[in-house]
Amino acid sequence: MNSAIKVVKHLAFYCVLLGAWQTVAALHLWPPYLFPAPVEVFASLRAGFDDHTFWIAIGVSMKRMLLGYAISTILGGVLGLLLARSAFLEETLGRLVVSLQSMPSICWLPLAILWFGLSERAILFVVVMGSMLSISITLESGLKNVPRIYAMAGRNLGASGLRLFWSVLLPASLPHLISGLKQGWAFAWRSLLAGEMIFVTLGLGQLLMMGRDLNDINQIIAVMVLISAIGFLIDGLVFRNVESRLRRIWGISPVS
């Protein structure tokens, strides 16, 4: 019953948004080529799926995204573990990582093009640099915020070294780690689209630039809706479910 009510509330919210959009478009405060009505954008969405343009772009972008995010997760996890285990690295490399994290991911693109040319590797480099640092920082923070009593209890039970980390410290830091992975996914997604927009290549970012070049506001907004929808689905189907389970396991939220 609660789930049904929640779904109804969500549908009502988005219906209100669509209604407000349609109302503003009907007032003609801006010409249709600058502010189209929802039906025109949805027609562009349908056309893009009918001619498989959107399917191809989604496939290409998601392939790059999954590969870049996997690399970011591995490298960011190793880096975060090293920073958490070494005071020297934390004071030196850790500060550098925090400084680099403050840079927009698009700043890495000129270096990527110089090092790798206009290639897939350049886009992957931007994705990795946009995501890896946030994952490492969050993992380091999660490991350091584990209560000391957990480590003491683990040692009293005979765990030490890698076994202590794997059986006690890592599970205790999972809520922070999942938050870091979620944030890393968002950064990687934005970095990917920024990279795809710079030079001609298949992908959702390039479809945005094509819409700009063709002065097709319907395609631009349609691709933006598609990008937002993919992010919404990934967050809802993957990260929210994992976070919900971890909250129940750790007693952060009541079991429904």
Brief summary of the model shown:
The protein has 256 residues and is an all-alpha fold. The chain has a domain at 57-202: MetI-like (MetI-like fold). Helix content is 82%, strand content 0%.
Describe this structure in words.
The chain is 82% helix and 0% strand. The chain is mostly helical and 256 residues long. It has a domain at 57-202: MetI-like (MetI-like fold, Orthogonal Bundle), CATH 1.10.3720. Helix 3 (53-85) packs across helix 7, helix 3 (53-85) crosses helix 10 (174-198) and helix 11 (204-213) runs antiparallel to helix 12 (217-250). The longest helix has 34 residues, at 217-250. It starts with a helix and ends in a 6-residue tail after the last helix. The mean pLDDT is 80.
> Which CATH architecture of the domain at 57-202?
Orthogonal Bundle
How much of the residues is beta strand, in percent? under 5%
Low-pLDDT windows of residues:
none
Q: Work out the helix count.
A: 12
At the fold tier of CATH, the topology name of the domain at 57-202 is: MetI-like fold
CATH superfamily of the domain at 57-202, called what? MetI-like
Number of strand segments? 0
Helix proportion range: over 70%
Q: State mean pLDDT (0 to 100 scale).
A: 80
Summing up helix and strand content along with how strands pair, one would put the structural category as mainly alpha
Write the layout of secondary structure elements.
Elements: H1 2-27, H2 38-50, H3 53-85, H4 87-91, H5 93-101, H6 109-116, H7 120-144, H8 148-156, H9 161-172, H10 174-198, H11 204-213, H12 217-250
Helix pairs in contact: 2-12, 3-7, 3-10, 5-7, 6-7, 7-10, 8-9, 10-11, 10-12, 11-12
